[in-house]
Design a protein that fits this description.
The protein is mainly α. It has one domain. 88% of the residues lie in helices and 0% in strands. Helix 1 runs antiparallel to helix 2. The longest helix is centred in the C-terminal third of the chain and has 42 residues.
Length: 82
């Protein structure tokens, strides 16, 4: 539980850091008439959540395969005993 809270804390800390950096870059560019429209904070969150979602999909796929193997072995044993 505490690890998840710390993970969220560091993720949000990274978001605010990159968001501030992007805003400073946008402001600095606008002073010179260059409008960059960079949004590094959102890109950071999209990247980190994308990694989490991909990991979750792989874990669920592996779990599903394990359950299918277990079910087929139970079915095979039931046919042999039945």
């Amino acid at each position: 539980m505490m690890v998840m809270k710390m993970s969220n804390y560091f993720k949000m800390l990274g978001f605010y850091f990159f968001d501030f950096l992007g805003a400073a870059l946008n402001f600095g560019g606008s002073v010179f008439g260059i409008y960059l429209c960079s949004d590094w904070g959102v890109r950071f969150l999209l990247f980190s959540e994308g990694q989490r979602i991909n990991k979750e999909k792989i874990d669920r796929s592996n779990s599903r395969e394990d359950q299918e193997e277990e079910a087929s072995s139970l079915e095979q044993r039931a046919k042999e005993n039945g």
